[in-house]
Amino acid sequence: MITLHHVAASRSFRTLWLLEELGLPYAVKHYKITDGSLRDPGFLAISPAGRVPALEVDGKVIFESAAITQYLCESRPLSGLAPKQDEAERVDYLQWLSFAETQASIIASLNLQMVFLRPPAEPSVAVLKLEVARLKLTLRPLEELLGQQDWLLASGFSAADTMLGYNLTAVPFFVDLADFPNIRAYVERMQARPAFQRARAQDGAQEFYSKPFYSPEDYA
Ligand SMILES: N[C@@H](CCC(=O)N[C@@H](CS)C(=O)NCC(=O)O)C(=O)O
């Protein structure tokens, strides 16, 4: 049995969604970021940096969502969700897989400073503005690409969309997507996928965001 170690609305949603796209049976072990369970020695033995996702699969334990994505697609090659090494789109696929983490690292920084940091600690408004600008910059190539095609790969939906698509569920807490109509249409397409909806049903309630939008100006 495959077991996913998961926090609701976190990067482990990528794996949850991919498992649904692949139609694989799995169990979910739920954790919370705020209750210390990710620092429990039992969990650290599974994921040494105390992060999710971690996946128990085929007698192995894998952490890092991109590695999990890669392993699942390569060990289930009939899925067709990742181009093989000799396919032309392989480079694009690998690029977007890593780009998802470039973008997610900015979202994680904004989460840390605007959502998790508690008084008397105060974020720097200048740093927040810089991070929002950096996040917007990562949206530009996506907006352009998604004006030409429905998914990250021209040939259609792939596991790269489960990696990067998840990010776009968090981006609107920090960037108004009004100026990014192609990204908004992409988000609608991904949310319409039955596997995405089944994953949402397993996800659990998010416990991070208490308002719809976080602005650096709120800290000025
Ligand atoms: N590069 C890792 C990042 C994993 C990660 O940092 N996950 C966050 C949730 S989005 C986490 O587990 N945070 C817990 C913590 O920082 O203590 C991946 O893609 O799996």
TrEMBL record:
<dbReference type="GO" id="GO:0016740">
    <property type="term" value="F:transferase activity"/>
</dbReference>
<dbReference type="InterPro" id="IPR004045">
    <property type="entry name" value="Glutathione_S-Trfase_N"/>
</dbReference>
<dbReference type="InterPro" id="IPR036282">
    <property type="entry name" value="Glutathione-S-Trfase_C_sf"/>
</dbReference>
<protein>
    <submittedName>
        <fullName>Glutathione S-transferase</fullName>
    </submittedName>
</protein>
<dbReference type="Pfam" id="PF13410">
    <property type="entry name" value="GST_C_2"/>
</dbReference>
<dbReference type="Pfam" id="PF02798">
    <property type="entry name" value="GST_N"/>
</dbReference>
<feature type="domain" description="GST C-terminal">
    <location>
        <begin position="86"/>
        <end position="213"/>
    </location>
</feature>
<dbReference type="InterPro" id="IPR036249">
    <property type="entry name" value="Thioredoxin-like_sf"/>
</dbReference>
<feature type="domain" description="GST N-terminal">
    <location>
        <begin position="1"/>
        <end position="80"/>
    </location>
</feature>
<dbReference type="InterPro" id="IPR040079">
    <property type="entry name" value="Glutathione_S-Trfase"/>
</dbReference>
<dbReference type="InterPro" id="IPR010987">
    <property type="entry name" value="Glutathione-S-Trfase_C-like"/>
</dbReference>
<keyword id="KW-0808">Transferase</keyword>
